[in-house]
Amino acid sequence: MNLAGYQTLNRGTTLFLTIIKWVVYASCVGVLVGISTTVFLKALGWGINATAGFPYFFLLMPFAFFASELMVKYLAPEARGHGTEQVIEAVHQRSGKIDHMVIPVKMAATIITIAFGGSAGKEGPCAQIGAGISSAIADIFRLSDDVRKKLVICGISAGFSAVFGTPIAGAIFGIEVIYVGGLMYELLLASFIAGIVSFHVSTSLGISYSYHYMGITPGFDALLFAKVIMAGIIFGALSIALVKSLSYTEKIVKVLPVIRIPIKGLIGGSILVLLALIFSTRYLGLGTGLIESSLQGGAIDWYAAHAKILFTCATLCFGGSGGIITPIFVIGSTAGALMDAVLGTGLPIFAGIGLVSMLSGSAKTPIAASIMAIELFGSGIGPYAAVACIISFIVSGYRSVYPSQVFSLKRFL
């Protein structure tokens, strides 16, 4: 065999061993994240059921937020906020290095926040838990910073997949959310394996998911397509409203000298109690009931999306712990349900499109959001949802609920 033949054989062997290495790494991440996510989701469900038996449980929110803030401040400051943002920051600034204490502290703080009525999501903690486990694996085996960073991204994918039951969208989300406008193709295999394994581990351990397959007739509907374009613009504008609301609320919290950790937890919880008494307790907690009602064509208050924005800002900026994506789904689906009622579509089409379009515009993940629409609502909605997601992504511009994202995209059009 000549030199060129040996070099070709060498490259082939190296490539094969690299594939095997990442299959093993990603599978380990998927299994561990699937198990930890299942534990978290079951504990969260238990906490929600325990407080639901008391009609005025939400009145204890100030004390719950205070406890959450105390826990985060003294045990794991990295656990503050809505989870995924801290992971993105760790990837860009610390090569994915995450304090191991984040895992139990984030679990406990989020359960306390949501169980007592805080308007937050469950995906951020799972992303942070997944990233924390991945970082721990890298430390145990003394892996390089580059490998740690990649494992942490796989942890994001695995966490997202196990929470929402969307393994393909979850896999893409992890590699899309880090760099806006630049997919990390070198992590496609590992991210997909981590997401798929995590999803199947969680389902085998008893986690169930909600899917709503919409009966959209195959073929092209020009009128529906025109409505979808308009909807994409509206959801993009609503994404801007959410991002700006979060930003302004955070600035207010920072400039008020009387607000100190963990006192701001007491203030935030009191604000939420007041909001619940003014609007409704429907906007407390995860808000999955609002999502289900929207996707089933139920009656939704015309101000539901804006009310959820208020409740979420009060939660995440005043000491509550949890994710941002579940509230995003509530905002998008309720706004879409209002469009369905106004346009008389007969199906909750825009409730579904709104759910994924808000994700695209707010988190800057149009590809993951488009795929998620197919996984949750069936292939018929795919082309329409994709167009709305891309328009929402463009309209919302450089605004994102994740300030630490790096924009490799120079311009949107």
List keywords for this structure.
Clc chloride channel; 16 helices; mainly alpha; 2 domains
3D structure, described in words:
- It is a single chain.
- This protein is mainly alpha-helical and about 425 residues long.
- It has 2 domains: about 5-205, Clc chloride channel (Orthogonal Bundle), CATH 1.10.3080.10; about 220-405, Clc chloride channel (Orthogonal Bundle), CATH 1.10.3080.
- The chain is about 70% helix and about 0% strand.
- It is built from 16 helices and 2 strands.
- The chain has helices at about 5-50, 60-75, 85-95, 100-115, 125-140, 145-165, 165-175, 190-205, 220-255, 265-280, 290-295, 305-315, 325-345, 350-365, 365-375, 380-395, and strands spanning about 180, 405.
- It has a two-stranded parallel sheet.
- Helix 10 (about 265-280) packs antiparallel against helix 12, helix 11 packs parallel to helix 13 and helix 13 (about 325-345) crosses helix 14 (about 350-365).
- The longest helix is centred in the first third of the chain and has 50 residues, at about 5-50.
- It starts with a helix and ends in a 6-residue tail after the last strand.
